[in-house]
Specification:
Helix content: 55-70%
Number of strands: 0
Number of helices: 16
Distance between the termini: 39 Å
Structural class: mainly alpha
Shape: globular
Length: 333
């Protein structure tokens, strides 16, 4: 199934600068490093926090809307940008396949997971495993050979994921955890497809991809029991409506546009480390608002996942003083 998705996308001559999986790829293109301006640092920090807080908004949104309804509404609003954005130079079939994996599959699955008991803080961490799935899929289908540093980061992160899985117990349903991991895998498939299409401006791509999720979202919603979309909107709480607007306008339109502009102006190695703030924001806010509890084993697993993610995205020069001291090619020194 995954290979069928990926084979339709021609491989580009070079990797896109604004690709969602850019910082997960091996052998990134050489770019001249530039020091980030204070205002851009603030933009990177705020964007990552916005994405972390999005998991809190999802929890509130799902109080009034079903998972497919929230998916459809989020991207119906995001698709309002389409008349103002030129269509990316990719075929409709490829656009639909990317939209189904990067947006539809990812958010339908994580919304269903949270609807049946996945805590928002833990969800913000499990979603970050998409970076490791992206490396594995790139190696399998794009022949991007992972470096030793990437292999080490994957090993550490999946050891942490194993701890989270075994420590979930009765607090987190196994199905919810499985759906969350499947959402991360869907995100990774979308990342690989985006890599294959070549350079594309992030905001127009995001806007046009937003046309895809409402169709399956509305279809699945019609098949499930419960109030219709119109009824859900009429009876939604103000918290759910605010959460919906946050997810659509801030976490989707504004955040993707901001992140894309940063990747277009700075090396990915300078921008990517800020993504570590997203799960940190998700965890801390969920603890404060919902009283989410982390047992010792689950907390250890989360720490291992974050260590693996840090090892993956932090620049090599930041890690030179650590015992494993990997060089920029990923080889041990």
């Amino acid at each position: 199934m995954i290979s069928a998705f990926i084979i339709f996308c021609p491989r580009p001559a070079e990797r896109p600068r604004a690709c969602l999986a850019y910082y997960c790829a091996s052998d990134p293109p050489v770019r001249v490093p530039s020091r980030m301006k204070p205002r851009d640092i603030a933009l990177a920090v705020s964007t990552s926090i916005v994405w972390g807080l999005a998991f809190i908004a999802m929890k509130f949104g799902l109080e009034s809307f079903s998972a497919p309804q929230l998916t459809a509404l989020r991207f119906i609003i995001a698709a309002l940008l389409v008349p103002f954005c030129p269509r990316p130079k990719i075929g409709w079939l490829v656009l639909i396949m990317i939209g189904l994996s990067l947006f539809t599959g990812q958010f339908l699955l994580i919304f269903f997971a949270m609807q049946i008991g996945m805590p928002p803080g833990l969800a913000s961490v499990t979603q970050q495993t998409q970076a490791f799935f992206t490396i594995a899929l790139s190696a399998a289908f794009l022949h991007d050979r992972p470096t030793r540093r990437q292999i080490l980061s994957i090993t550490i992160a999946f050891a942490g994921l194993g701890l989270v899985t075994t420590s979930a117990g009765n607090e987190v349903p196994g199905v919810a955890l499985g759906l969350a991991i499947a959402a991360a895998l869907s995100w990774a498939i979308g990342n690989v497809l985006v890599k294959r299409i070549g350079p594309a401006p992030m905001l127009p791509l995001m806007a046009w991809l937003s046309l895809v999720p409402p169709v399956p979202g509305l279809f699945i919603s019609a098949l499930l029991p419960g109030p219709s979309l119109v009824e859900a909107l009429l009876h939604a709480s103000w918290q759910s409506l605010v959460a919906l607007l946050y997810l659509a306008f801030i976490a989707t339109i504004a955040a993707y546009a901001s992140w894309g502009s940063l990747l277009a102006r700075y090396p990915a190695a300078s921008v990517a480390p800020f993504s570590l703030l997203a799960p940190c924001a998700g965890i801390s806010t969920s603890v404060l608002i919902f009283g989410e509890h982390f047992g010792p084993a689950r907390l250890a697993g989360i720490v291992l996942i974050l260590i693996g993610l840090a090892l993956l995205v932090l620049p090599a020069r930041w890690l030179d003083r650590l015992p494993f001291a990997l060089d920029r090619t990923g080889s041990a020194r």
